[in-house]
Structure formats: structure tokens, C-alpha cells
Specification:
This protein has helices spanning 13-24, 43-50, 66-80, 96-101, 125-134, 169-193; strands at 2-8, 30-37, 55-57, 84-87, 106-110, 138-145, 155-162, 197-200, 203-206. The protein is built from 6 helices and 9 strands.
Length: 207
């Protein structure tokens, strides 16, 4: 049984997609053992509690030094003894010590087709604003493993989504979630849970 901890910052729609996929059997051999948010008012925490999942807030604002927050976050995650950490809309740069403690055991969902519109400053609605400003006709989402860089780890899954002339950033964000994020994140977790993922030469392959 793959034990996962999900890190979130907002409403938790990707968390809900994982919960629903486990319930419907689209993700097998997997259990969510904990949910952690950096925001006390994140609705994702309520989603977790409504489904009987342990949930807590660990915020950088509660610590005088960033190093103290880093240690607290790592300690909280370690308590769950997870096999995989899933970043599902988590808007905090992970501390190096956490990435080093869980090599190739952290995945992230990013709302673009990496390497486009990724890296520093590209998160949330900013990604979709940039896509529309550039005039892209296609965008999408990417699930990738997390390394010490920003959106630079091995790509696991991607799915394209068409951009429409009438799109606003909010409309495009919703379509990317519905047509890509909520599909490929559960698929990635299921593949990892069932031993169908291999990483070689910084390239991830699903068998």
C-alpha cells in the first residue's frame, strides 16, 4: 500500500480528484495518510477532514526563521512515514533538506506543458495569464518529480488542452484542471503505486 502525504495551499481541487479516484478505483494500492497546508484557512484542510484524513497547517508565518519552518515541515511529514509526497497546488518552495530526504519520492502538478511557462513566478493564475498573453493555441498540465530546481525534475505525464479565443485566465485555469490536472495526477499516483515507473538518466517512464 502506497502511503501518500498531500501538500496544498488552496481549495484542494486536485486533492479532491485524488480522493475521488481512490474511492472509484482509478487509483489502487494507495492511501492518503496526511494533508498539510501552509495556510490555516485553506479549504483543502476541510476536504481532508470531511473524508477522515488527518490534516494540519504548518505555516512559515508561525516561525521566526525559515530554517525552523523547514525543520517543522520535514518533521511533520516524517511522522506519516510516507512513500510519496504529492504537491497539489502547494505554493511554497520546498526546502532542500526535504528534497534530499525524499529523492524521487515527491511529485508536483504544474498547470502548463513544461518547459513552457514554468520556473520562478509561474504559479496559479499567473501561468494562464502568461499563456494568453503569448497567444498560445495549446497549453496543458504536467506531472513531474521534484528535484532541487523549480519545475525541473523528470517529467512523468503531460496532457495538452486547447486554448480558445474567448478564454480568460480564470476560464482557462478551470479547463486545464478539468481536462488535464484532475486526470493525469491520479494516473501518475496509480502508476507509482503499482511499480510502473522507472527513472533513468533524468527521464521518467511509465510501463
Amino acid at each position: 500500500m502506497l502511503k501518500i502525504v498531500v501538500l496544498v495551499s488552496g481549495g484542494g481541487t486536485n486533492l479532491q480528484a485524488i480522493i475521488d479516484s481512490i474511492r472509484l478505483g482509478r487509483i489502487t494500492n494507495t492511501e492518503i495518510v496526511g494533508v498539510i497546508s501552509n495556510k490555516k484557512d485553506a479549504y483543502a484542510l476541510e476536504r481532508a477532514k470531511d473524508h477522515g484524513i488527518d490534516a494540519q497547517c504548518i505555516s512559515p508565518k508561525d516561525y521566526e526563521k525559515r530554517e525552523e519552518f523547514d525543520q517543522a515541515l520535514l518533521h511533520a511529514i516524517d511522522q506519516y512515514q510516507p512513500d510519496l509526497i504529492v504537491l497539489a497546488g502547494y505554493l511554497v518552495i520546498l526546502p532542500k533538506l526535504l528534497v534530499e530526504a525524499y529523492p524521487n519520492k515527491i511529485i508536483n502538478i504544474h498547470p502548463s506543458l513544461i518547459p513552457s511557462f514554468c520556473g520562478a513566478g509561474f504559479y496559479g493564475l499567473h501561468v494562464h495569464e502568461a499563456v494568453l498573453a503569448r497567444g498560445n493555441k495549446v497549453t496543458g498540465a504536467t506531472v513531474h518529480f521534484v528535484d532541487e530546481g523549480t519545475d525541473s525534475g523528470p517529467i512523468l505525464l503531460q496532457k495538452a488542452v486547447c486554448v480558445k479565443a474567448t478564454d480568460t485566465p480564470e476560464i482557462l485555469q478551470r479547463r486545464v484542471m478539468e481536462e488535464a490536472e484532475w486526470l493525469i495526477l491520479p494516473q501518475a499516483i496509480d502508476a507509482i503505486a503499482n511499480g510502473r515507473v522507472q527513472i533513468k538518466n533524468n527521464i521518467a517512464t511509465i510501463f
